[in-house]
Amino acid sequence: xxxxxxxxxxxxxxxxxxxxxxxxxxxxxxxxxxxxxxxxxxxxxxxxxxxxxxxxxxxxxxxxxxxxxxxxxxxxxxxxxxxxxxxxxxxxxxxxxxxxxxxxxxxxxxxxxxxxxxxxxxxxxxxxxxxxxxxxxxxxxxxxxxxxxxxxxxxxxxxxxxxxxxxxxxxxxxxxxxxxxxxxxxxxxxxxxxxxxxxxxxxxxxxxxxxxxxxxxxxxxxxxxxxxxxxxxxxxxxxxxxxxxxxxxxxxxxxxxxxxxxxxxxxxxxxxxxxxxxxxxxxxxxxxxxxxxxxxxxxxxxxxxxxxxxxxxxxxxxxxxxxxxxxxxxx
Length: 331
Hints:
Largest sheet: 8 strands, mixed
Strand content: 25-35%
Order of helices and strands: HEHHEHEEEHEHHEEHHHEHEEEEEH
Number of domains: 2
Structural class: alpha/beta
């Protein structure tokens, strides 16, 4: 596995001195933070609301690791937190069992007194040191604050299931089904009610837009005579289409439709970021069609569900990665 530990920012410190060096970091002008003129006082540094454990699986590349680190950093502007980043080594022969880095960032608000500070602890560990990981992480967390666990690009669901401490103690377990192993959402996790999918989260604006339009019709009108629902999509958004179709199936089944066929169309060639949704009704008198273009940020609805045609243009977007993380964690 590529050494993602070295790709991430931070100052390497002895594992046993993490807490001490974190405290020292905020008192030294050599760690000014992003956009700050001077290091924050210690009281500012302790304004932490949650613990976030970002666990980078063995399929994570250095570039990908930096991208997820950036998402966590941007998220910290919304929610000051202690972030612990875990970097496993598939083959740690000849390397220390565990290594550590620390990194601190302060985000300035509208005034100089409005500082939001985040602390990163980055831990690299070998398979031989795996048995000590949970104990070490518990020492790194801010005490008496909730923990959220974000598992990214694990090589298998079974490997992720071995981390029982995180899966049972976290307020939320967050995965991205677009890059996880198939079946990650159906796997028998110890606390399945706490599992959240980033794909579902970033679809929030689309789900809201469709839901707000369709909710103007009685459930009976939507379900009666409905025969099929087809969702077309481009290749890059296959995961979003799969999750969106599952959401539609759940909602439309509540409208009383019987024997409705739900399907995904073959990925559209050429244009990136396009969706095409259509409802087919018996007799052909009712109609609903929605086409979205993420690149342009626009969507078009054509509907005739109660004898009167409607055409409507709406906005379309996906949540940004940091906003999707916020949605998955707290909603």
